[in-house]
Amino acid sequence: MTTSLPRRQALGRLMGLSGLAALGPSALLSPTGALASEPWPTRPLRLIVPFAPGGAADSSARALADPFATALGQAVVVENRPGAGSAVGVKLAAQARDGHTLLMGSNSMVINPSLQPAIGYEVARDFEPVGMVSVQPLVLVVPAGSGPRSVKDLVAQAKARPGTLTAGNSGPGTLAHLTSELFAAEMGIDLIPVPYKGESALLPDLLGGLVNLGFLNLPSVLPHLKAGKLVALAVSAPQPLAELPGVPTLRSQGLPTLEVQGWAALLAPRGTVPTEALTRLEGLLAQALASEPVRARFAAIGVAPHPLGRAPTAAFLQQEERRYAAIIRSRGIRLE
Fold first, then answer.
1. What is the mean pLDDT of residues 310-330?
2. Is the per-residue pLDDT at 8 higher than 60?
3. Measured on CA atoms in the order 299, 302, 305, 310, is the torsion positive or negative?
4. Which of 35, 78, 152, 160 maximizes the CB count within 10 A of its CB?
5. Which secondary-structure segment (H or E) carries 22?
6. How far is CA 97 from the centre of its chain?
7. For residue range 72-101, what is the model confidence (pLDDT) as tens digits?
8. Residues 127, 91 contacting (CB under 8 angstroms)
9. What sign results for the dihedral spanned by CA atoms 18, 24, 25, 30?
């Protein structure tokens, strides 16, 4: 007797499900909902940068896009989503469930939760690290005509003129702001924070002597140091910088807690990228950071490759979050 069409379709579906079940639950679905045997990635990757184009995080992302695309066989599209001190882009990445979204995170992603309790994401809960990408030290600078030629001179000036020295920064709650607060606390001095909308807005007033000091990124201040318009008193890197011979580290000035650097890290929204794919990305990241083309592009923007695997990066992010939370709490920093 001939089986009816609906019954044959039902039997076919049953046989298909039975065949999949025989493979075991681990073979059925990946975290992204695709068959586990399906290669990853299956379409172009979106790499969210939570800042406007042109900064260190953006440039780092673009330097990695080409080698990743070549190795993965899919385009890597850098998508800039600035706003709210990076919170807009980070939250967007945290909510992405497509399995093909990555984030180029930075210091601000671990600072912001302490400043904005209702920010809508938690770093450890919502992200899985692929690895660290780059670091960029800060330089403590003063206007050339302001007098200080060392950290000791600056501290003496601040103590002689209590409550009068101004510290320009690139915005409330930024790394530059928190570093100046930490510096003031460690040295027992008062500094008046003066926020600007980025380093480009701060520099004219710093050059003109309208603010007394600032912690800025090396690429921003290097031309003005060479021109003799600014003086570098110290760097926040673990070691002296080749670009600034003779300028000591803050650690060597008795300030180990001020070993502070801007950083970029590559992350994925938790539970969206298969574990084996994360491991592959970790390896590709290490290869890219060791390659001459990427190292040359990093050098051009004043950042240094900082290869660090998934587990050490996770521990580092937790440490950074605790560190900045303590500074924000002890100094009573709030966003107005």
1. 96
2. no
3. negative
4. 78
5. helix 5-22
6. 21
7. 999 999 999 999 889 999 999 999 999 999
8. no
9. negative
